[in-house]
């Protein structure tokens, strides 16, 4: 009873505060505005909002979106919703997307783009009905539909379709784009039966590069050591960097010291894309012995994009010497702003506890400077990280004259569900001079 009474008093207080300060203007939360746009807006407004929801990875509007998906006649709007659902892995549109199976089977009129989008979406959410029925689509006369179906088979490891896929591989009449996808899908389902058919294709110098690349990918996915020799031969091709790139990516999936050494040696390759792929693999595999050469690449590689990738790989390896190097970059004056920003991004991602005192120190020191790109980037990275112990910094940000910092604070408080800030957010929702702050504060209150 006491808890109920207190809740009622709080609601009355919040309502009174919201309307007492500005009697002629009702400030609604940003989430309420979005909901109303989805419910009542014209198609162009809805599409624009969906694009923003996707970009900012915002959820919570499935009911409104599903209603549109089921009722709209605008196919481009349907595609936008399915694309958003696919990216966010939201399964609410499954029933609507499954309707396209009947359209394909009975060859009724439909857009290729819409059918493919439905299949891609069903694959992403691992729809069990779509997986069990997908074999019925492989006989379609539409190559685009067949390719989409094969991608679903590969992504969901539908091994039961191996025999059908092998028949496509051995059929001389298989169209090239389908042929390439068959090869990739056989790799995705880890078909060892396909290895003996794939090796001669990779060795055939008269074969199209796209097909040989697909074979490299497939052998890497299958992961059988029988494929290593041919992949090494492809990597040694000094005239075709695209083939080298595919071979290197495939070899990077094998776990052995020899493979790690191949990746390290590939950092000397003259083509930037080879170096980039090697760096990514070294970071993914956390190859600690690569630190020295990665440090060199981070600071001195002639390609800026390679320097950036090297910083990221060092952060992903996350050994003690890697952390020490990144902290040195962030705190020492001898490094550039760009290097400091790359360092802090990875430090916050992997070691926020370890770097947090440096973040607070930089805020206290740099917040009044006119030019503060490092601080701005640091705060932006920090508020997008789940971290419960940044309360002191959030208090400072909420009181900052810079409304962007106040907005960042609200974002971090909302992400981390820091309910102790509810009273301050109520105050901001009614008294802050910036309307966006008021809206975002209200939205945060609703989630705390």
Automatic annotation (TrEMBL):
Signal peptide interval = none
Q: Name one Pfam family in it.
A: HEAT_2
Any one Gene Ontology MF annotation carried by this entry is: oxidoreductase activity
Task: List the SUPFAM superfamilies hit by this protein, alphabetically.
Answer: ARM repeat
Against PANTHER family, the record matches this protein to:
DEOXYHYPUSINE HYDROXYLASE (PTHR12697:SF5), PBS LYASE HEAT-LIKE PROTEIN (PTHR12697)
- The name under which this protein is listed is HEAT repeat domain-containing protein
Query: Native species of this protein?
Result: Thiospirochaeta perfilievii
**Upper taxonomic classification of the species?**
Bacteria, Pseudomonadati, Spirochaetota, Spirochaetia, Spirochaetales
């Amino acid at each position: 009873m006491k808890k109920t009474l207190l809740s009622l008093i709080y609601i009355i207080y919040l309502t009174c505060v919201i309307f007492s300060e500005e009697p002629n203007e009702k400030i609604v939360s940003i989430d309420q505005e979005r909901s109303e746009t989805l419910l009542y807006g014209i198609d162009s407004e809805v599409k624009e909002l969906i694009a923003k929801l996707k970009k900012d990875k915002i959820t919570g509007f499935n009911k409104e979106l599903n209603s549109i998906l089921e009722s709209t006649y605008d196919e481009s709007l349907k595609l936008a919703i399915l694309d958003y659902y696919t990216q966010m892995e939201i399964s609410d549109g499954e029933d609507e997307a499954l309707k396209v199976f009947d359209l394909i089977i009975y060859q009724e009129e439909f857009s290729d783009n819409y059918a493919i989008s439905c299949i891609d979406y069903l694959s992403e959410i691992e729809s069990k009905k779509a997986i069990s029925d997908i074999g019925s689509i492989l006989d379609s006369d539409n190559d685009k539909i067949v390719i989409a179906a094969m991608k679903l088979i590969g992504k969901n490891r539908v091994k039961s379709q191996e025999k059908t896929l092998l028949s496509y591989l051995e059929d001389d009449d298989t169209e090239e784009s389908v042929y390439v996808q068959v090869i990739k899908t056989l790799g995705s389902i880890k078909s060892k039966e396909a290895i003996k058919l794939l090796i001669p294709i990779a060795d055939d110098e008269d074969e199209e590069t796209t097909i040989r690349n697909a074979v490299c990918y497939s052998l890497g996915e299958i992961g059988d050591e029988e494929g290593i020799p041919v992949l090494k031969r492809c990597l040694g091709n000094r005239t075709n960097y695209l083939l080298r790139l595919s071979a290197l990516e495939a070899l990077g999936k094998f776990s052995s010291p020899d493979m790690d050494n191949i990746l390290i040696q590939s950092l000397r390759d003259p083509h930037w894309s080879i170096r980039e792929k090697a760096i990514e693999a070294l970071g993914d595999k956390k190859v600690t012995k690569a630190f020295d050469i990665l440090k060199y690449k981070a600071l001195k590689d002639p390609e800026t994009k390679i320097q950036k990738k090297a910083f990221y790989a060092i952060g992903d390896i996350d050994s003690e010497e890697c952390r020490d190097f990144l902290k040195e970059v962030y705190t020492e004056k001898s490094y550039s702003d760009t290097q400091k920003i790359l360092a802090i991004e990875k430090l916050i991602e992997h070691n926020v506890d370890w770097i947090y005192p440096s973040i607070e120190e930089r805020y206290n020191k740099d917040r009044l400077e006119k030019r503060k790109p490092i601080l701005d980037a640091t705060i932006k990275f920090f508020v997008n990280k789940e971290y419960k112990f940044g309360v002191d910094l959030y208090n400072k940000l909420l009181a900052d004259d810079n409304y962007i910092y106040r907005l960042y604070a609200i974002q971090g408080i909302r992400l981390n569900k820091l309910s102790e800030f509810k009273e301050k957010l109520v105050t901001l929702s009614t008294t802050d001079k910036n309307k966006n702050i008021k809206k975002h504060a209200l939205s945060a209150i609703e989630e705390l």
